[in-house]
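Please fill in the sequence for the structure shown.

STRUCTURE ENCODING:
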């Protein structure tokens, strides 16, 4: 039997960087009803808190939001990252470890490492660290399609959406007006008739990358426009924080 298709094998936890990501897995939320954590409130630079939208979607699927869902505004997370404040990240990681232990979580799903947004990547590192601390038999970690399409050969679980499931997913996206342009960025994944979970081997976070991350290119543009005054980089900020989160103490 496929490990991830057996409901008797325990509760699943979902960790996403931003509220709204869970809509991509709407059918899976209905099927497996995970305990869901969002790190930020989705407010971005000058947007609105999206947690109420997500809480509504989550409740309608029968899943459950963590107690500290949307733990802090995006600006606070990015400030902590720029200032190399590992304690800020570790505080939320420890809180999730405790809540997932209480919920008897035995496998996890999280954002993929794509070098698109630093918080997406750090949600992955945080989840890998959580899995080590939970120490279930064993905690498995999966990921899903967010901005990129992953290798189908890595598929661990596929949820084929019925017409009714797809209709409910489309309705959830329509009513989630706070997603704004992000719904367009994720439209391919949102319209897919299947939702796929992929095996997520622990990323090794090398010192250098073959290509410049998108978030660095985006940040450089904002610096030129004088909308940012500091740049988040993989080498100086993201990689060191990820390595810290992989082995929380």
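FILLED IN BY: designer on duty
SEQUENCE:
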């Amino acid at each position: 039997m496929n490990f991830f298709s057996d409901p008797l094998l325990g509760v699943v936890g979902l960790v996403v960087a931003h509220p709204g990501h869970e809509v991509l897995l709407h059918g899976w939320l209905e099927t497996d009803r995970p305990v869901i954590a969002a790190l930020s409130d989705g407010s971005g630079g000058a947007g609105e808190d999206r947690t109420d939208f997500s809480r509504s979607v989550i409740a309608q699927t029968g899943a459950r939001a963590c107690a500290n869902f949307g733990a802090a505004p995006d600006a606070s997370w990015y400030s902590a990252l720029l200032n190399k404040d590992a304690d800020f990240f570790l505080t939320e990681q420890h809180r999730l470890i405790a809540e997932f232990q209480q919920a008897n979580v035995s496998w996890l799903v999280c954002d993929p490492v794509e070098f698109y947004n630093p918080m997406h990547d750090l949600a992955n590192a945080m989840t890998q660290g959580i899995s080590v601390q939970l120490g279930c038999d064993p905690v498995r970690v999966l990921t899903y399609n967010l901005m990129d399409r992953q290798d189908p050969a890595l598929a661990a679980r596929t949820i084929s959406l019925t017409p009714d499931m797809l209709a409910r997913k489309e309705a959830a996206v329509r009513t989630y007006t706070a997603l704004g342009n992000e719904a367009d960025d994720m439209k391919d994944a949102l319209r897919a008739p299947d939702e796929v979970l992929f095996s997520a081997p622990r990323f090794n976070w090398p010192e250098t990358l073959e290509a410049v991350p998108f978030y660095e290119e985006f940040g450089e543009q904002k610096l030129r426009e004088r909308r940012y005054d500091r740049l988040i980089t993989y080498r100086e900020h993201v990689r060191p924080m990820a390595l810290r989160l992989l082995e929380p103490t």
